[in-house]
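Project outcomes to date are best conveyed with an example. Our students and postdoctoral researchers have been running inverse folding experiments weekly, and each run begins with a structure described purely in tokens. The record below, which covers 348 residues, was selected by the lab manager from last quarter's runs and is presented without edits.
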């Protein structure tokens, strides 16, 4: 039986800081610098293109650090970083630009536009990152809301239920009567109801993927209300540009920007293609990671995982110098595989 051409992997991350991935400009309205939203649900997201560039840079940083170590097994004259990151200009006298070689883990994983024998699309593809759980302030402390559409991102189906305008939560044993009172989500008050199929439909799908302090503080809303509550509770900050000549606030330089709040849980998918089914030009792929040949989708995902530590410390998106962007990967697992073949990590 031939090897499968690809494998998909769930990656779930939690914002350690607010995250701002902007739309590339300003608009008239209350917020000057808005963040990217899904065009249908209007829920904020992080585009896959943002992940592709960040993952490439951070994986190259890791390999360059490994190459620079004394007695490193990596034999390579040109550096991984910054040469094999960036826009991939044509190399000049072996300096700068993607190398485009079949033995380069960065170029074969993320692709390149120019190189020996033309371009290569790469072995890894990234989906957009969507909100799975969103933190909202209440009088009882923060809770993390979700919706049927959000739960489908982790193959969790909510069937045969009309959510209406209620907040559904997990039934509690020995629940006191005052816990059944209405609860505010930001500035809106909701009537609470128990969702009796919580264990079957929700808990078994996400409880092993999220931090312990979030598990018992989840609320379920309809898709319509989920989008509305998320957009009403984004973090909004105001900053001012500094005039370099005076060192003080510039004239008419006040601006506001929005961000996903800290502890937002995001989920995205990485599709890793089988290297055995591809060639770089007319050459077989010979790149290695951890001294192992990249000859399977799992090996491709190992290259991807090297970026996760850097993602936690260096972040993604804009406003990094204003305390934004850090994203911790809390779970990564292969999709639709047996438990014996799955890869899971929990770094919380």
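After processing, the design step wrote out the following sequence:
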């Amino acid at each position: 039986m031939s090897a499968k051409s690809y494998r998909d992997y769930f990656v779930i991350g939690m914002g350690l800081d607010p995250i701002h991935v902007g739309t590339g400009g300003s608009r008239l309205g209350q917020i000057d610098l808005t963040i990217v939203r899904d065009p249908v649900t209007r829920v904020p997201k992080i585009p896959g293109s943002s992940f592709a560039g960040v993952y490439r840079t951070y994986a190259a940083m890791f390999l360059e650090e490994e190459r620079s170590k004394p007695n490193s097994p990596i034999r390579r004259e040109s550096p991984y970083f910054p040469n094999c990151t960036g826009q991939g200009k044509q190399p000049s006298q072996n300096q700068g630009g993607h190398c485009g070689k079949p033995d380069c883990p960065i170029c074969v994983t993320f692709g390149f536009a120019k190189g020996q024998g033309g371009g290569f699309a790469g072995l890894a593809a990234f989906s957009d990152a969507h909100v799975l759980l969103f933190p909202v302030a209440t009088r009882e402390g923060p809770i993390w809301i979700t919706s049927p559409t959000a739960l489908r991102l982790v193959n969790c189906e909510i069937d045969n239920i009309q959510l209406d305008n209620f907040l559904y939560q997990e039934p509690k044993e020995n629940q006191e009567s005052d816990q059944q009172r209405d609860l505010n989500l930001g500035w809106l008050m909701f009537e609470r109801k128990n969702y009796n199929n919580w264990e079957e439909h929700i808990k078994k799908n996400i409880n092993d993927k999220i931090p312990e302090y979030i598990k018992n503080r989840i609320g379920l809303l309809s898709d319509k209300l989920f989008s509305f509550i998320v957009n009403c509770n984004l973090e909004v900050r105001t900053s001012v540009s500094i005039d370099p000549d005076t060192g003080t606030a510039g004239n008419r330089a006040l601006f506001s920007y929005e961000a996903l709040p800290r502890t937002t849980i995001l989920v995205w998918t990485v599709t890793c293609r089988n290297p055995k089914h591809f060639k770089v030009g007319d050459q077989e792929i010979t790149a290695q990671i951890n001294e192992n040949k990249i000859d399977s989708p799992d090996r491709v995902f190992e290259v991807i995982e090297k970026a996760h530590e850097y993602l936690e410390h260096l972040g993604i998106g804009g406003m990094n110098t204003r305390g934004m962007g850090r994203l911790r990967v809390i779970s990564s697992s292969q999709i639709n595989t047996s438990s014996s073949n799955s890869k899971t990590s929990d770094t919380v």
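DSSP finds eight helices and 17 strands in the chain. The chain has two domains: 6-127+259-334, 143-236. The training component of this project remains on track.
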